[in-house]
Structures are given as structure tokens and as C-alpha cells.
Amino acid sequence: MSVFGCIRHHGGRALKVPTQLAANCGNTPECMDWLNRLPATLRELECRWSLSLGAPFDCDEVSCAWVAPVARRDGTAAVLKLGMPHMEGAHEIQGLRFWNGDPTVRLLEADDDLNAMLLEQCVPGTALRALPEPEQDIVIAGLLKRLWRSPSPPHPFRPLSAMTAYWRDETLSRAERWSDPGLVLEGLRMLEELPRTAPTEVLLATDLHAGNVLRAQREPWLAIDPKPFVGDPAYDATQHMLNCPERLRSDPCTTICRFADLLGVDPERVRLWTFARAAAEPRDSWKGDRLTALARAIAHSGVV
Ligand SMILES: Nc1ncnc2c1ncn2[C@@H]1O[C@H](COP(=O)(O)OP(=O)(O)OP(=O)(O)O)[C@@H](O)[C@H]1O
Ligand SMILES: [Mg+2]
Prior knowledge:
By secondary structure, the chain is an alpha+beta fold. The protein has eleven helices and eleven strands. The chain has helices at residues 19-25, 29-48, 92-99, 133-147, 160-172, 181-193, 238-242, 245-250, 252-263, 267-280, 290-299, and strands spanning 4-10, 13-18, 51-53, 65-72, 77-83, 107-111, 116-120, 202-204, 213-215, 221-223, 229-231. The longest helix is centred in the N-terminal third of the chain and has 20 residues, at 29-48.
């Protein structure tokens, strides 16, 4: 049985809030406000979109949103997602509109101000994590290549450099905690340089990993949870690579080259991006952390 982080009042019923989401909401006053308003927001959407809510999904994958299966008035199933305010996730709704179900879940209803989405439900919804990593590589590469399309201006999407600049500022503000300043500074330099040297720019999912790819019926696999930015396709390889830490640490070259080859992107750019994130992306703890160890392994796998 799931352990929930907190229970809130929801029109006479108890509203369950997943553990990881509750913990993340404690980090900023804006997210605490969002969490405090969640019961009222859910009541409003339940009524406006004629929904009966099920119990929210609660697993390690749920960290930035309240997500639950729902039944619509006509009896069909869907999923309600309310995203907590956070920099990376600001344009999920606009991204789902742009991709329009190809190869993401479809957006059935949305409220941009509330960052609320009614989504096509993936059935059975098993995460791609259930498959061995080499098989995940093939599915994720196929989805990414379909996602990489160029939005025509005017569009709402931010450049990838906006996210890397945000990460640089966060990391620089914690300089006293770094365990390996030389490594972090090299990573920061690349986070600044790589967006400027992109050979081409497309709309990226930025968070496509095997936990955000679900088994479905309309297609074998659909992507959920995009965090769209416009930039270098090689960047989009990094989230899956970082989610395969054992393979990446033990044989960085083979792991990265195989995936880059499936994607048709430059393996050296994938390696540099993965190094930059592992070395310098913000994190809760910098001492003996898993990402720093990965950055060292990647740095030793070639000339960074
Ligand atoms: N359309 C869907 N169909 C079926 N299940 C879904 C759907 N969307 C989300 N889920 C379930 O809810 C979980 C959390 O959804 P999602 O990944 O969108 O939330 P998140 O908290 O933003 O994730 P992250 O922590 O990666 O930012 C998924 O792992 C999946 O189990
Ligand atoms: Mg997710």
C-alpha cells in the first residue's frame, strides 16, 4: 500500500498527496501555496470537466505533479494532472498542444492558468522501465526522433539556454558546497558553451526517460510529461543516459555512442552534454554524489 506524504481536506474527503510531491512542495513558498490551494482547484476542475477522481498515482516517478486516473461523464477514462509551479515544467500544456498526440498522450482539456491537464489515459500504462535498457534505447530514440520538430514563430517556447542559465545560477549560488570545484567549473563552462554551438534547433522534450514513456493502445508507447525547450537535439539524449547510471559509469563510450547512433546525432555532443549535466547541474547534496562520479567517468572516456 502506498505511503502518502500528507492528507488534505477535499470537500469532506481526504485528499492524498504523494510523498515526493509533498516533500518538493516544501522547498518554495510558491509551491506551498499551490499545495494549499490544491483541494479547491480539484473541486473546481471536477465540476467544470465533470470528472470522478480516482486515487492519485504515487511512486518514485511522481515528484512535480498531482496525477490521478479519472472517469469522465460519458464513462470514458482519462488522467487529470496538475503540475506544481516549476521552471522546467512551465510549458507542458503548450508542448502537448504542439505535438498533438504524435507521439505524446493527447490533451483532452487544459487550463493554462492552473497548469491543469486532462490527458488521454495510457492503458495499461506500464512504464518503459520494465524493459531491459538496450530495448529502452530503441524505443526512446524512436520517440525522440519523432518529437524533434521545429515550431514556427511566434511560439511560446524558451531556448534551452534559459534552462542551462537557470541551472548555472543555482549551482553558482551553492559554491561553498561543491566537492570538486575544478569539475564543476568545467561543467558550468560547457553548460554555457554548448547551447551556443548547436548545429540545429528543434523542440525538445528535455525529460524523456523510461519512466516518462508508457505502454498504450493507440501506439505501443506514448511519451508523457514533456518539459519543452528549443535547442540542440543532442541534449535530449542526456536524460535517458543519466537514468542508466550503471551502464554509463562502466562503459561511457559504448553506451553514449550506441544511443547517439540510434538518434542520428553527434556522439561527442551527447558526451559533452551528459558530462556538463553530471558535473554542474544543481543537486541537493554535492558530497559523494552519484552525478559527480558519473561526470568523472565520462571525462575519462575521452577529451572533454
Ligand atoms: N496519461 C497517462 N496515462 C496513464 N498514467 C499516467 C499518465 N500520465 C501520468 N501517469 C502516471 O502518473 C505518473 C506521474 O506522471 P508524470 O510523470 O506526468 O508526473 P511528474 O510528477 O511531473 O513526473 P516527474 O517527476 O518526472 O516530473 C506517471 O509515472 C504514470 O504512472
Ligand atoms: Mg514523470
